[in-house]
């Protein structure tokens, strides 16, 4: 099942988060975004060239929309982290699957084709988000409403970016090209931010962390793009909650974070929801197999892996 690529993406992003937290002692946010994007652009350029795939695309407008949505979500999320407790900022950003469910549900309702299976998946997403609330136990004070709104909007832009990824996949765009343009836009935005906030001196440790962050980000973006392009959108959105579990485990191992029973309950809810939705989608696929569709172009057959 192609949606399971999201589990690997969540794992890669969680490791990347560890790297970002460590690299924050050496670099500003803008610098981390810039170098992460620079490494991503370089890797995807080399990979696309080796596969004989051009970066030119007939769907440039959709690529730009996806990239701007994604980079905006990233910048808003970083901003909300500076204004809110980390748990609160993460929870608000992880509302993106619920926004995806609402966006797709509204589209299905307008088309007159709502599905029972999708209703089950929406319920599972809500269950997963309940697990996130238990695990992170966020709170927003009366003096944090601005940061809360920024975090909430970051989740909306994340959802819009994922929906655009799905559309690019339906248009036959290779995963590598999608990731390339996202990294390119992130490179420009990170450069502007970096030039505004200043440039930090490099150390071997700092440079090593930036390299690891860039590689993990590219792995995560490629896997996430493949999951949204080929898999079920709502199932993929639900599986991204695994990133919260991975991040919590890294917090225990690296920073000796302590989790209470409510947090462990949240982890159980997230894992149970992911397993249930995976099995449900597998049964639906077995009962109603999707007929093969012709590939729109030779480039659509290229599925780069990092």
From TrEMBL:
Gene Ontology terms: cellular component: membrane
Membrane topology, from the record: Multi-pass membrane protein
Location of the protein in the cell: Membrane
Keywords: Membrane, Transmembrane, Transmembrane helix
Chief place where the protein resides: membrane
Residues covered by the EamA domain: 4-103, 147-273
Ranges that cross the membrane: 33-48, 68-88, 94-114, 121-140, 146-165, 177-196, 202-220, 232-255, 261-279
Region spans: Disordered: 282-306
Record-given protein name: S-adenosylmethionine uptake transporter
